[in-house]
Amino acid sequence: MPSYLFWFFAIITLIGGISVIAMRNPVSSAMSVVVSFVGLAGLFVGLSSFFAAIIQILVYTGAIMVLFLFIIMLLDLKTETKRAPSIAAIAAGLSLVIAFTIQLVGVITHTPNKQAPPLDQAALTAAAENFPADSGIASALTAGTLPDTKLIGHTLFTDYNFPLQILGLLLLVSTIGVVVLSNKSSEKENH
Amino acid sequence: MAVVKVKRPKLGFGEKIYLGALAKGFLITLKHALKSLAGKSIGADSLKSSGMGVTMQFPETRWDDQLPEYYRGAPTLVTDEQGRERCVSCQLCEFICPPKAIKIKPGEIPTDDPWAKVEKRPQEFDIDMTRCIYCGMCEEVCPEQAIYLRKDYLITGLSRAAMVHDKKKLYEIGGVRTGLVNKWNELK
Amino acid sequence: MTDIIIQLLIIVTKIVFFTFMVLLPLVPVSVYFERRFCAVIQDRVGPNRVGIPLTLLGFKKDIPILGLFQPVADGIKLLLKEDFTPSYVRTTYYWLAPALTVIPALITVCVIPFGSPISILGHQEQLLIADIGVGPLFVFAVSSLAVYGITLAGWSSNSKYPFIGGVRSTAQMISYEISLGLSIIPVLLYYGELNLGHIVQHQADHGWLLLPFWQDGKIGLPDATTALYMIPAVIAFIIFTVSIFAETNRTPFDLPECETELVGGYHTEYSSMKFALFFMGEYAAMVIGSALIVTLFLGGWSVGFGLDSWINGLHIGDFQIGGILHIGVFVAKLIAFILFFILVRWTVPRFRYDQLMKLGWVVFFEAALINVFLAALILAAPELGSAAIAIGAVLLLAVTAAVIWVAKISEPAPKALRV
What we know:
The structure holds 3 protein chains of 3 kinds. By secondary structure, chain A is mainly alpha-helical. Chain A has helices at about 1-20, 25-45, 50-75, 80, 85-110, 120-130, 135-140, 150-160, 160-190. In chain A, helix 1 (about 1-20) packs antiparallel against helix 2, helix 2 (about 25-45) packs antiparallel against helix 3 and helix 6 runs antiparallel to helix 7 (about 135-140). Chains in contact: A-C, B-C. The interface of A and C includes residues 51, 63, 66, 140 and 147 of A.
């Protein structure tokens, strides 16, 4: 059953991806990206990784692509729909695709063909021993469910705590930068 | 008028935080809701409310006996106390009618009629109620006091033709009007 | 194989029941309540005539059951109206947009727990469609897709007022998603759980988040941490509720369809059933928003006061009916909250656009952020020394004061009305 769903969502993702470049209208392209992201989220759900799927939709589909769409609509790109693609652009795109495919094939052939461990009761209970017995993660694991949200949180705040803080700082700096820059230009207009 | 410079009011902390005003607003609307559910809205009595709020629910409760003296409803034709049509088809009302709702076809009164000396009466008298604007000018202009605006306001019909009041209908609504205009009567 | 089929049948039954027999009927019900409630607020009567139309069958009189059938009449009217598509619209997106506003609202039902588990013939069954561990996030994610419907409607109508409506709504929804997400972090910290079913079970056992006055079936005062936690909980509740108002485009934040400026907003060019879909999507979003608030803050399906375990025990033979009762309780709470939504709509005047943005970005964002730290401090207090608590409290106060100060000095001085 899951494999059918995998194919279903994989095909949706691919169709979305192809129509991004096939569509002439920028809004259609943006909507195709949305379709592709939703398909990707479906693939994540197939991997029992609900959190990643939800964040995929919440952040990329629900916020970033909305902003893209917003900007495309405000610019009202009419010339984009009429312009014929130049040969140079097609050639550059094709060469990029070929390079990427070669790299992908290389990576895949060098990866050992390992099967993911099945998420059955025994594997989960064994994994629960790595956590304190009274923690939420351990109790969920022994109950036979995969607490993916808690596991991601646990990993982020233990193993990757320092990078996370740095990232937070980076985002803060960029936010302040945007505020300062936008303030500057509006002040100039006033004077 | 001189230009008055309005200063922005200085808001206190309580006003700025907005929640107090919000709660006050909720209390007001809730009070109104509860009052109208109990049928005790302000003005419910004077507006003849039929239970909830101040609304008079029309077909069941009616405004009829509250209509003011000067209410202008449907224009009608009247007969006098001796059963004579007062209208002499002078066509003044037809002339004055702003929306041209009145159409009169004058006719002669035959010589053997007791009212032969009146000479004229309408053969047809149509008021198109889809056009009538209830201005009362016909009533005002009529030298014979033959056309009156009554208090009927429920004028309905399923077709345009049904909305045209002909002579028979006009007399039916109008009825008999006694007094005044007696220059055609024996007693002067 | 038969196991899978039975499983599928159960899932389909649940989807049909909760989506089409609980959520969708709540939409006309809330429309009816909206009209009646706003009428009594304004000293009117509201629709009270449509009932069983016996006159159609040749009887003398209809039976008006308080006008309860008004939504049915409205629905029939909208279905039978002419579906007019203007010639200048971008047809594909024009047709897609109404569906895109309704579908997300209907999908979000699947994580809302409607009642405690029921058991039939010894088979335990949860009364929610998808028991996944990311409940509120799922609702946010899927309902954030509704913005596409509104934006596309505005854009594809190819007309100025819908376009401005669509742009406004996009900006508004993105702005308020932030405070929406941040404001529930204290709630999630308290439960240590993202699964809505578990959250409600916890509230049934230990008292609702905003009313923690019982513990394991006994009424009593809460312990110090829980009592103190009321403060961040109430702040979170206010921010979350107001953000839900903004997110569902309800008054006082209904700027995308502000009649006085934008005719009808993003659905100006829509008629008939397409318009009705927008209407339905808006009300379904409102129902889902209320459901989320009730679930997170007001105990979901639980009756409270320690009565839930008694209700769970009720059964007729092998059939436990407690869950069914809990669905009733949940729907009652939902309708009560919808009435609150309606009361707000007919009380609070519409905000200006800059006020809306300021409220979202300057007030709620900061307040929610500080609230997270406050909640964390209160939760961690029992394990910290008194010195650490004091330092934390002082730091928190300092940060709060700094934020208020920055907000105050960055506020532009009021301009003179006439220059």
